[in-house]
Structure formats: C-alpha cells, structure tokens
Write a structure and sequence with these properties.
By secondary structure, the chain is of the alpha+beta class. The chain has helices at 68-82, 111-125, 159-171; strands at residues 21-25, 29-37, 45-54, 60-61, 64-65, 88-91, 98-106, 133-142, 149-158, 175-176. It has 3 helices and 10 strands.
Length: 178
C-alpha cells in the first residue's frame, strides 16, 4: 500500500505471445528449442529446453524431406526428450528454400494497399507464380533517406517446402503456426 492506495500488479492481464518451440530440420538432425522471456523488457530470453535428435541417413536430401515418417519420428522423439507440454512449433526453412527481397514503399498505407504493392513487387523477383509460393512480408521501419517511406522485407518459399514441414509436425502430433 502506498499513500493509502493499494498497489496491485496487473501484468498478468497483459496478453503474451503464445509459447512455442522453434524447430530446425537439417540434413542430419532435428534441432528444437523452447525459449521463455527472462526480462521484463521483453527482449531477454532464456533457453528452457532443447533437444537435438539425429535423423536416419536417407531421411533428407538437399534440404528436402524424403521420408516424412522418419523425420516425424525424430521430431516426436526430440519432443519427448525435451519434456515439455508445449505442442505448438515454429518451423525453420533452409535459406536456400527462401527468397528474400527488401523494397521501399510509401509510409502510412492501408494494409490492403500494402499487400497489393508487395504482391506486385514480388512478381518481379520471384521466379514462380504467386499461387505456387507462400508469401509473407514485414515492415522493417522508416528508411534513413526519407521518413515518408518504409522498408519492407518480402519472404517467399515454394508451398511444397512449407507444406512438407507442416506435415512432419502434424504427423509427430504437434501443431505448426504461421
């Protein structure tokens, strides 16, 4: 109590981003990490759990999943070894499977207008039809040269690359988030 007023901490009411497990499927193993926020500032993280589970020799080829069952089983074993109750995962893609490009657009656009402009720009840089890719973007922030413009990072990957990894997670009994 301070100055006759009850001092109550309402931080438990703040919405937090949902906890999840980061997963990287490489040519030889499945790597998993669960992080938690360690600081009140929201930019300090602590590793809660991690696991590295080997993959059978022929489960992957050139970053592509060859044996969905083998990779799913390794993911499931790694998840059990971690000892977590979380079932939500964020899956990494190999750098070779992702096309990224930074573009400059006018600041203050409506989301629909920004999406249209991103798709238009993406058509110039992505060597596939847009209906064959998963496309995402993030506004990075104002440009150094002109505060009336913002820098936007575009990322695209072939749908089958994303869908293969999502299928691995689902087969392992986990839920992939986008």
């Amino acid at each position: 109590m301070l100055n006759g007023k009850l001092d109550i901490d309402f931080t438990f009411l703040q919405t937090r981003s949902p906890s999840l497990i980061g997963v990287d499927i490489s040519s030889s193993s499945v790597k998993m990490v669960e992080l938690s926020m360690a600081g009140k500032s929201g930019n300090v993280y602590r590793v809660e759990r991690y696991a590295i589970e080997p993959l059978p020799r022929d489960a992957m080829l050139d970053g592509n999943i060859v044996s969905l069952e083998a990779v799913s089983e390794s993911l499931r074993r790694g998840w059990k070894r971690m000892g977590t109750r979380l079932k939500t995962v964020a899956l990494a893609l190999p750098a070779a499977a992702v096309i990224t490009k930074k573009i400059i657009v006018p600041a203050g656009q409506r989301e629909d207008d920004l999406l249209f402009q991103v798709e238009t720009e993406a058509n110039q840089y992505i060597p596939f039809a847009l209906d064959e890719v998963n496309l995402d973007f993030q506004v990075v922030g104002p440009t150094a040269a002109n505060p009336e413009e913002v820098e936007v990072l575009i990322a695209a990957s072939r749908k089958e690359k994303v869908e293969d990894r999502v299928a691995v997670a689902l087969t392992a009994g986990l839920k992939a988030v986008c």
